[in-house]
Design goal:
With 273 residues, this protein is an alpha+beta fold. The chain has 8 helices and 14 strands. Helix 4 (171-184) links the parallel strand 10 and strand 11. The structure holds D-MYO-inositol-1-phosphate. D-MYO-inositol-1-phosphate (IPD) is lined by residues 78, 94, 97-99, 166-168, 195-197, 214, 217, 221.
Length: 273
């Protein structure tokens, strides 16, 4: 392993350790909530965009651990904000991705922690509190689920491919996103909307989904999951890199259908979502 690879593997271990500790906090809070405990809930950009006290506690824990393990490195988090460092490592944190699932008792949510350098993910971990699954990746080194190497699927036909998506919290944007899904659904095997972008990106890496596309994600939603998908061999496009699909699209697809899906999405009007 090169010196760079050693650095990225070390950052991956830190991301995994910190995400796993926060996931344990989130798991305990979820169990207490399901046993009848109350969780404080506030709203953010829309009445449907929620943040719980557990999101904040999880992010506080991640920030405290990173301050000890990686002193001086800035953190950009969904709840606490922050900004990226030029040149050095910035930690990008979603303390609960899939907060709505968390709140309803659906087990599909995760803690996502990534290390980025100049806006590029170099290491990351996505840890699911309920199942305990740990998804990890380091740039150039591969992606893993619980230590098992991942590789994306290889479907031969777009019309037999399973494609996931998600919706923004803004109502007007949802209408346009719904139209795009309406155009796409007859051209693929089926559509999934699971409610946690990081996990959908990881699922593309595992071959559990053939592709995932969503407009309007925040950096913390994709920073770790997109690295898992790309290190598993998926074709990944990040916000700002695919104007034919829209300025803020996040896209991950198995390489065997990636070009055809991209063309199809463009035909379906993805650029105006
Ligand atoms: C949300 C989830 C959801 C996606 C939304 C995200 P949050 O993140 O990842 O699947 O469709 O766009 O905002 O709010 O649960 O951290």
């Amino acid at each position: 392993m090169s010196d760079v690879g050693v650095q990225e593997s070390l950052l991956k271990s830190v991301a995994e350790q910190v995400a796993a500790e926060a996931a344990e906090l989130v798991r305990a809070a979820w169990a207490a909530m399901r046993a009848g405990g109350e969780v404080r809930v506030d709203t953010k950009s829309a009445d449907t965009d929620v943040v719980t006290a557990v999101d904040r506690e999880s992010e506080d824990l991640v920030r405290a651990r990173l301050a000890r393990l990686r002193p001086g490195e800035p953190v950009l988090g969904e709840e606490g904000g922050g900004s990226a460092a030029a040149g050095g490592v910035t930690w990008v944190v979603d303390p609960i991705d899939g907060t709505v699932n968390f709140l309803y008792g659906l087990p599909s949510f995760a803690v996502s922690v990534a290390a980025q350098i100049d806006g590029v993910s170099v290491a990351g971990a996505v840890v699911e509190p309920v199942s305990g699954r740990r998804w990890t990746a380091a740039r150039g080194e591969g992606a893993w689920l619980d230590g098992q190497r991942l590789s994306a699927s290889a479907p031969q036909r777009l019309d037999l491919s399973l494609v996931a998506t998600g919706f923004a919290y803004d109502a007007g944007r949802r209408v346009r996103q719904g139209r795009l899904v309406g155009e796409l659904v007859s051209r693929v095997r089926d559509i999934r909307r699971n409610g946690a972008a990081s996990l959908e990106l990881c699922a593309v890496g595992a071959g559990w989904l053939d592709a995932y596309v969503e407009h309007g994600l925040h950096r913390w939603d994709w920073a770790a999951g997109a690295l898992v998908a790309s290190e598993a061999g998926a074709t990944v496009l990040l916000p700002g890199s695919a104007p034919d699909l829209g300025d803020d699209v996040t896209y991950a697809a198995s390489p065997t259908i990636a070009a055809q899906l991209r063309e199809t999405l463009a035909e379906c009007g993805a650029a105006s979502v």
